[in-house]
Amino acid sequence: MGDIKRIGDYLNFRMVLEANIIILDNSAWSRNGDFIPTRYDAQVDATHVVSSHKRQMNPENTVGLMTMGCDQVQVIVTPSSDEGKILAGLHGIKQKGRTLLSNALQVAQLALKHRANKHLRQRIILFVASPIEHEEQDLLIQVGKKLRKNTVALDVINIGEYDQGHVTKLEKLVEAVNNDGNSHFLNVLPGSAVLSDTLISSPILMGAEGGAANAGNFGQSDDPELEMAIRLSLEESKAHQAQVEKASEAPAQNNQDQGAPKPAQGTATAKPEESKNEEEELLRRAKEISMPPQTQMVEEPPKQAPQAATNSVFEDEEFINNLLKEVPDLDRNSPEIQALLAEFKRKKEEDQKKDENKGPEAK
Questions:
Q1: In 3-state terms, what secondary structure has residue 359?
Q2: What strand order describes the sheet that includes 18-24?
Q3: Closest by CA position to 143, among listed 107, 179, 105, 117
Q4: Phi and psi at residue 351, in whole multiples of 5°?
Q5: What distance in Å separates the CA atoms of residue 36 and residue 121, rounded to the nearest whole number?
Q6: Do 214 and 185 contact (CB within 8 A), yes or no?
Q7: Beta pairing, strands 62-67 & 74-80
Q8: How far apart are CA 82 and CA 90, in angstroms?
Q9: Number of H-type helices and E-type strands within the chain
Q10: Which residues 6+ apart lie within 8 Å of 176 measured at CB?
């Protein structure tokens, strides 16, 4: 049941309609090279991933772009379903000055309030790559409560700054906004080579399945292990379920096999018996065919009539003389012809004697 609930939560997360605003930190600290190639470039790469992912979740989702560095807040792109506007807006942004975090959140909330589709849920994705010492914690909590009142969710990605006071302020901000786990805080540890890879496996893009909500420390080395652990867990559960199904099917199959052998054996033994019967029938027919000719003559006497008629024709001397005349270069007085004629006469005499002997018996 736990796996089913997690799958249901993930599907609900995937089907959410959202209007999103991405806030980039383009302060002077964003030029730091502890993230490859710089903190700002890492944010740009992650922005591509977030924008693409949001559009893939639902084509009706919109994404906007803002900056909070250079000592000013600037709306680059209002929430739009055109991803090309986001890509074009990322060019030409300068990195200098400090951030205005609380002001940026309030401007983002106003931009989301005036979204075209009011059915879209509101979400702010905030990148923090510089110190926020000048931001008062109470002011941030107050802004967070205002966002929660207006049903705005907040995802905070902290990179490059790990001072305890800095992290605590951001955590308190997320806690003030969080409503039933809709907001997340992602603290990316040093040594992460690609920020976007860490973001992909986080709860910000993967929902509750991506990791613990509201807080978490992620590094590049942890992401492959987390992904591998999830895959192995799913594979093990599938293999276990397959084994259970096979074990439950085995007794039923055995019962079927135990009930089926008798008719199967009957049919198997019937085939040799049928073949023996066929052989006996063939032998019987062969014996009938090979019976003596006398039996056939007794059973079918009419067949001898044509033979007698034929013999009588050849015994007619006039017919034979005419037939022999038609054959060119044939000597009728040759020994072979005379022997043949004599044989015909002898057979005629024998047939006549047989007829005479049968006559009295028939009477």
A1: helix
A2: 74-80, 62-67, 18-24, 121-128, 152-159, 184-188, 217-218
A3: 105
A4: -65, -40
A5: 33
A6: yes
A7: antiparallel
A8: 14
A9: 14, 7
A10: 140, 141, 142, 143, 144, 145, 147, 148
Task: Supply the pTM of this predicted model.
Answer: 0.57
DSSP string, 224-280: HHHHHHHHHHHHHHHHHHHHHHHHHHHHHHHHHHHHSHHHHHHHHHHHHHHHHHHHH
CA dist 311 to 302, 345, 348, Å? 15, 9, 7
Other C-beta atoms lying within 10 Å of the C-beta of residue 313: 12
Joined tokens for residue 138 = 């109470």
Q: Do 223 and 233 form a contact (C-beta atoms < 8 A)?
A: no
Q: 155-175 burial, b if ≥16 CB within 10 A, otherwise e? A: bbbbbbbeeeebbebbbbbbe
pLDDT along the chain (363 residues), means of 10: 48 72 95 89 93 90 95 94 91 92 96 92 96 92 96 95 92 95 90 79 73 40 53 69 77 59 46 62 65 48 47 58 65 73 76 72 49
Q: Any bridge partners for residue 188, and if so which?
A: 159, 218
